[in-house]
Design goal:
Helix content: 25-40%
Strand content: 15-25%
Structural class: alpha/beta
Strand order of the largest sheet: 8-9-10-7-11-12-13
Number of helices: 9
Shape: globular
Distance between the termini: 49 Å
Largest sheet: 7 strands, mixed
């Protein structure tokens, strides 16, 4: 299977590392914002074609699918561009930064019949898979999720500490992980509320945010997000359930008493990004809907849209 990857930044390299481990997959084109550094990364990973034009990548002979790790503001339009070109597409989270754009991607995916998936990695991290498997077996039910998403990011920097060409967003990007995961683990969301702190004078975004969610099951979720936190960075999930408590830190899981849980048998890899890519490739090969398809994750973006309108009305 021949893949093009657009977005040669920090997250793009994570996908390239994961794709290396999947049999029968070849990355044939790499798309980046600036040609020289894109060529350097292409050389590092043995990719024969590098470009700054996604349309050029879509014309590569035998291309089957595209993974988009580009700036958020480009996701929806580029996903539609890939589908129009007859290519399966995986869009990194978030699918969009407006509900109308997300609905347009879903409509295009339905019209083409191609695989369209969104990179909601939390569904694939072994830590969250372990909890999901227990829920599916009827051994655990979420009562409450307490989630902290913390960064120290007062400038446009990526995960490697390099300058970004675009502005990140607590709601449409970072909250999307938790909103989707909460619904995935606890059931459809029926109530949502948000408040935000002051907007950064240069970035123009809220630097702190608090979100409350309630699922149809009665479970609740409290999510705290900040770009101002000068401390441990990342997202930390506490699952409080009827038969136990778990704390998930990316691909690691401990009990509420910080006792490590062995996740080695949960999946074929302990890397959530690789597992996400494996699902994308398998769904294409098997002609089935992937976990985290655009159709499955769109309810998350409907909740984000409602929260966005709520925050705008309160300003």
């Amino acid at each position: 299977m021949k893949i093009a990857l657009a977005g040669a930044g920090a997250f793009g390299e994570k996908h390239l590392d994961g794709l290396r481990n999947i049999a029968g997959v070849e990355v044939v084109s790499l798309v980046g914002r600036r040609l020289e550094p894109t060529q350097a990364i292409a050389a590092k990973y043995g990719i024969g074609h590098a470009t700054t034009d996604i349309a050029e990548a879509l014309e590569q002979p035998g291309l089957d699918a595209v993974i988009l790790c580009t700036p958020t503001q480009m996701h929806a339009a580029q996903a539609i561009q890939c589908l129009d070109a007859g290519k399966h597409v995986q869009v990194e989270i978030p699918l969009c930064d407006s509900l109308a754009d997300g609905e347009a991607v879903l409509a295009k995916a339905n019209a083409t019949g191609l695989t369209a998936m969104c990179g909601h990695t939390r569904r694939f991290n072994p830590s969250h898979q372990f909890v999901h498997d227990r829920i599916a077996r009827g051994e655990f039910a979420v009562q409450q999720m307490d989630v902290q998403t913390y960064f120290f990011r007062r400038k446009n920097m990526n995960a490697k500490g390099e300058p970004r060409s675009w502005t990140d967003h607590l709601l449409w990007h970072h909250a999307a992980h938790t909103v989707d995961l909460f619904a995935y683990q606890a059931g459809p969301i029926v109530q949502a509320n948000a408040v935000e702190g002051p907007h950064h004078p240069e970035l123009g975004i809220a630097m702190d945010m608090s979100i409350q969610l309630k699922a149809e099951s009665g479970a609740i979720c409290t999510l705290s997000l900040s770009f101002n936190n000068d401390g441990p960075l990342g997202t930390f999930f506490r699952y409080i359930g009827d038969t136990g408590t778990y704390i998930a830190r990316y691909d690691d899981l401990v009990t509420g008493k910080e006792e490590p849980i062995d996740l080695s048998g949960v999946a074929v890899s302990t890397n959530g990004i690789e597992l996400q890519d494996r699902e994308f490739i398998a769904a294409i090969r098997e002609g089935r809907e992937p976990n985290a398809s655009v159709a499955q994750v769109l309810p998350c973006y409907r909740v984000l849209d409602a929260l966005d309108r709520q925050l705008a009305a309160a300003r």
